[in-house]
Amino acid sequence: MASKRSLQDPEERNLKRIKASTALTSLVSPWSFGWQNSLDNPGSLKRSLRNKHRSGPSAPTLLARDPITFLSLSKEIQDTIYGYVLISPSPLIAWAGMHVDEMEQWQHDEFGYTKGPASLSIPRYIEDSIIVEKTASSLLRCNSSISRQAAKIFYRKNTFRFFGEYTWGTVVEWLNGIGPVNREHLTKVEFGVRTPQHVWQLPSGVRTQLDEDFAEPARDENEREQVYPRSHFLHRPPGDDTDGVVENINPAIEDMMRLLGRCDSGPKLTISMLLRYRVVPGVSITNDHYPFRHWFGMDLPNVLECCRHLHTAGGEKKVAVLWKIQENVRAFGEKRHAVEGRGWEVVGEVEDELAATIPVPERLNFWDFMGIDTWVTLRRKRIYGTVLADDPSPHSWAGC
Predict the structure, then answer these.
(1) DSSP bridge pairs for 127
(2) Which residues have a Cβ under 8 Å from the Cβ of 260 and sit 6 or more positions away?
(3) Phi, psi of 130 (to 5 degrees)
(4) What are the tens digits of pLDDT across the range 99-158?
(5) With 80 as the cut, is the pLDDT of residue 6 above it?
(6) 274-289 pLDDT, tens per residue?
(7) Cα separation of 161 and 92, whole Å?
(8) What's CA 157's distance to the chain center, in Å?
(9) Cα 243-244-247 angle, rounded to 5 deg
(10) SS in 3 state form for the chain?
């Protein structure tokens, strides 16, 4: 059943949030309403003090009322106000590397589409999230009691999204920046996942940048990050001297999991890897017009799962990693066994709403000419024993 918050009209929700923010700002102020009025009118304050002196100790005073502050409110009221001003129904941007005006255009694919789990509704972000980010930046700088409670709600109740051309080093910087206590509060972090950077592996196993004279997108690939050695979690089969395009994985991904594994307590954290439209790591399901550019192997999922198990499985704070994809429902059904054979576990699947309106006997014919999609949640199965690096891309020599 939908919550009351989700059923509210956006304008009504924003109005309540603005009112709550205004109320909180006034209550957090060190001045009570009575004192503030006196300070605005110094003559009034002097007259009040003079009357008290003349009338003696038994005379009533205008300043006897205790000031109303935010901390004097009950915890239930405090939490209600915090909820209105610190919780966003849309993801908050942990890092984007670009102005909000550029974000919509950046996430378009080659055909101008903005689809798939990795897509972000920029209008909803502007409407729901920016005001929360600004309010939080103020509250987290208040006195220790307010900032501590505000941070707990802010980091536990919101989803934080990494958007744009971030690196795993960027993520580590953010986790260090929010500090160990706030890392413990995290419950939902999302990553808009790009295809891993491609580099060339020589027969010796040494990796280099792509030859820009050979492959059309090589220059863009070479500018993304420096070339890293093969992850120590991945092993080449004995005697393997295959060369070709492989994935470049920043070792900072292990630093990220190491930081999360050091948390002494806290609720479970779910990391969602949001993939672009019709991209499934390790399996090519639908026809791709740019196979060289979009090839996505299993090295990144394998390394991430190895890091998660090594650094967080025995810790106090549990961490789950989910991969979310959007694929053609018929094509995914035909290759589901291939997906599971690559080490994936299907933990959730939801068809487009349109599919539910079509009578079951008519669905097969309908799928042939209508691209009904399914939203699938995958989890990398537990890895045992030696992890072999993926073979180089089968499209290494396509050059386009």
Answers:
(1) none
(2) 175, 183, 269, 311, 312, 315, 317, 319
(3) -60, -40
(4) 888 888 887 765 555 567 878 888 889 888 988 998 888 888 888 888 899 999 999 999
(5) no
(6) 998 889 999 988 766 6
(7) 6
(8) 13
(9) 120
(10) CCCHHHHCCHHHHHHHHHHHHHHHHHHHCCCCHHHHHHHHCHHHHHHHHHHHHHHCCCCCCCCCCCCCCHHHCCHHHHHHHHHHHHCCCCCEEEECCCCHHHHHHHCCCCCCCCCCCCCCCHHHHHHHHHHHHHHHHHHCCCCHHHHHHHHHHHHHHCEEEECCCCCHHHHHHHHHHHHHHHHHHCCEEEEEECCCCEEEECCCCCEECCCCCCCCCHHHHHCCCCCCCCCCCEECCCCCCCCEEEECCCCHHHHHHHHHHCCCCCCCEEEEEEECCCCECCECCCCCCCHHHHCCCCHHHHHHHHHHHHHHCCCCCCEEEEEEEEEEHHHHHHCHHHHHHCCEEEEEEEECHHHHHCCHHHHHHHHHHCCCEEEEEEEECCCCCCEECCCCCCCCCCCC
pLDDT in tens, 108-124: 765 555 567 878 888 88
pTM to 2 decimal places: 0.80
Whether 135 contacts 147, CB under 8 Å: no
What's the pLDDT tens digit per position in 305-357? 999 999 998 888 999 999 999 988 888 989 999 999 999 999 998 866 555 55
Token duo for residue 152: 């707990």
Q: Give the C-alpha distances (Å, rounded to integers) separating 205 from 215, 247, 248, 296, 392.
A: 20, 13, 13, 19, 11
